[in-house]
Design a protein that fits this description.
The complex is a heterodimer of chains A (307) and B (302). Chain A is mainly alpha-helical. Chain A is built from 13 helices and no strands. Chain A has helices spanning 2-28, 34-39, 45-55, 61-73, 87-122, 127-141, 144-158, 174-199, 203-210, 215-253, 258-267, 271-299, 301-305. In chain A, 37% of the residues are buried. Chain B is mainly alpha-helical. Chain B has 2 domains: 1-35, no CATH class; 45-301, Orthogonal Bundle (MetI-like fold). Classes of the chains: A mainly alpha (307), B mainly alpha (302).
């Protein structure tokens, strides 16, 4: 098991190098000279040339990337053009807010979605099944940002129950977490239903039933565990959508996280900050996917046996 | 029995053998699709959207009704004259939504065609040749897939700046690896089929085998992916525009209309409701159609 984990972590390294290289290269296409941006339009050509040399902007892009990665390994992501503070401080001070929002969203939506999908499968073709699948389809089709706006309209403006923006109270997280998790409920419930439907037709389920095991126990102990594997896969894929979705949710709810910082940095042409945010997002995605892959082993002993 | 009869009549009416086979497959898929009412609802909505996009100029004049501001007419609630009301500078919301369908569908289509072509060729090469070629192409695609699609699009838009052309590039690039993976997965089982072996035995070139045998036989999952991915693309266009990274005003785009309407949410909720509903119905339609196509194209699922 430990050997497998180590192997997977080592396999992650080329992926991380790859994604950071792609992101770094794309961001280097941004028009405008960083030295001019820092010094302002009034700076003399000599001063700009000197700063370019100091920043290593005259080196080939691959050397610049290698230097960036070396600095990144030490937790240095450069200096923000706008606030003149280190990007690492700007990004990591906002990271907990985004992490909290994402974890809340995924937890609440999974807790809701798995029983929903299970019930829909067990009571296939019932009214509950139809209703929950219509709900799931609506959830998949609902744009996060519109759902967030609707929530604000109902719970903040009309009813006045919850704050419409910011992170000032402990309950401020409720609306953004629901908006972010709603899409996830739909996808997870749908996949749980279809894999559950497949599993409950298996022979071992019939065997367990004919041996006299109560139906509820069969569903919980025998069927659910086998049905969860596709669900976990979808959860892993959903994390990517969740990270991108957190940008939209944070913008709607003025949530002080990384996503919102990234968008304001983009409009301020603050390239080091944008780069820092995107790199942290992609690193999170890779690490979470690794965790999801390892989670298979805990759910399915057959996969664990292959380690 | 009935199905067999139909096959026979097609054989009698058609001229060449190849034609018969293709017609049959398409016809049979269509018949299965037509039985699925939710897919039909999706298809109907998609057709209405396409018609809106094609005849947008006939319905509403772009310069005088979609772009031109008319302050004296601002923020009027939905009425007979303006079924979806007017926005903060007096433009008809329905006119903008109708023209917005053209933007969303055009960009969605252009990006999808690009992703499908590039991703499809890469995936087909990887799946067909296997071994080293497969490894190199798919490891590169894996790296792209390790970046969430929307985030990759945000990254490209942040670097290139917002314009329609850049938006198409961003969506096309972020959609390509998904297609490559689907096409590779579809080509792999076909590659080892007996008819491919037979084609090779009679001396067909690889190019001919790929275009005449492999691609037509691995089309089904690609069609499903194309439908589903259109929904994702349209949603991403709206999301990026909502963030101010996609299409900038005054061009009518659903996401940016919704974003602009947020400032007037107190009292003028319809400014966000109609664009939001339009996006949702569009995505729903493509998803329903995609689900239906998947069931119709894969007889094993029935």
């Amino acid at each position: 098991m430990w050997k497998y984990i180590l192997k997977r972590i080592i396999a992650l390294i080329p992926v991380i190098v790859g994604v950071t290289l792609i992101v770094y290269f794309i961001m280097s296409l941004a028009p405008g000279d960083p030295a001019t941006t820092i010094l302002g339009d009034q700076a003399t050509p000599e001063a700009i040339a000197q700063l370019r040399e100091e920043m290593g902007l005259n080196d080939p892009i691959i050397i610049q990337y290698a230097r960036y990665m070396l600095h990144l390994a030490r937790g240095d992501m450069g200096t923000s053009y706008k606030t003149k503070k280190p990007v690492s401080i700007e990004v990591f001070s906002r990271f907990p807010a985004t992490a909290k929002l994402s974890v809340m969203a995924i937890t609440f939506s999974t807790i809701l979605a798995i029983p929903l999908g299970m019930l829909a499968a067990v009571k296939q073709n019932s009214f509950f099944d139809g209703a929950s699948m219509i709900f799931a389809l609506l959830g998949i089709s609902m744009p996060i940002f519109w759902f967030g706006v609707l929530e604000q309209l109902l719970f903040s403006l009309k009813l006045g129950w919850l704050p419409s923006s910011g992170n000032d109270y402990w309950y401020s997280i409720i609306l953004p977490a629901i908006a972010l998790g709603f899409h996830n409920i739909a996808s997870v419930a749908r996949i749980t239903r279809s894999s559950m439907l497949e599993v409950i037709r298996q022979d071992y389920i019939r065997t367990a039933r004919s041996k006299g095991v109560p139906y509820g126990t069969v569903i919980r102990r025998h069927a659910l565990r086998n049905a969860l594997i596709p669900t976990v896969t979808v959860l892993g894929i959903q994390i990517g959508a969740l990270l991108a979705g957190s940008t939209l949710t944070e913008t709607v709810f003025a949530w002080p996280g990384m996503g919102r910082f990234m968008i304001t940095s983009i409009s301020g042409r603050d390239i080091p900050s944008v780069l820092g945010c995107i790199i942290i997002f992609t690193l999170c995605f890779s690490v979470v996917n690794l965790i999801v892959d390892l989670a298979y082993g805990f759910i399915d002993p057959r996969i664990k046996g292959q380690y | 029995m009935a199905k067999k009869k139909q096959t026979e009549t097609v054989v009698m009416t058609a001229n060449g053998e190849q034609v018969i086979k293709k017609q049959n497959l398409a016809l049979e898929t269509w018949r299965r699709l037509a039985k699925n009412w939710s897919a039909m609802v999706g298809l109907a909505i998609v057709i209405v959207l396409v018609l809106c996009a094609v005849f947008a100029d006939v319905l509403y004049d772009y310069d005088t009704q979609v772009i031109k501001q008319n302050i004296s007419n601002r923020l009027q609630a939905p009425s007979g004259e303006h079924p979806m009301g007017t926005d903060e500078v007096g433009r008809d919301v329905l006119a903008r939504i109708v023209h917005g369908s053209r933007i969303s569908l055009e960009i969605g289509l252009a990006a999808n065609v690009f992703s499908l072509t590039v991703g499809g060729i890469l995936g087909a090469i990887a799946g067909f040749y296997g071994h080293r070629v497969d490894n190199i192409i798919m490891r590169i695609m894996d790296v792209f897939l390790a970046i969430p699609g929307t985030l990759l699009a945000i990254c490209i838009m942040a670097a290139l700046g917002s314009s329609i052309f850049n938006l198409i590039i961003a969506l096309a690039v972020s959609g390509t690896p998904g297609y490559a993976r689907i096409v590779r997965g579809a080509v792999l089982p076909v590659r080892d089929m007996e008819y491919v072996e037979a084609a090779r035995a009679i001396g067909c070139t690889n190019k001919r085998i790929i275009f005449k045998h492999v691609i037509p036989n691995s089309l089904a999952p690609v069609i499903v992916q194309a439908t589903m991915h259109t929904a994702t693309t349209i949603l991403t266009i709206a999301g990026l525009s909502f963030l101010g990274l996609g299409i900038s005003p005054p061009t009518p785009e659903w996401g940016s209309m919704l974003s602009a309407g947020r400032a007037y949410i107190r009292g003028y909720a319809y400014l966000t409701t109609f664009p939001g509903l339009t996006i949702m119905i569009t995505i729903l339609a493509f998803n329903l159609l995609g689900d239906g196509l998947r069931d119709a194209l894969d007889p094993r699922l029935r």
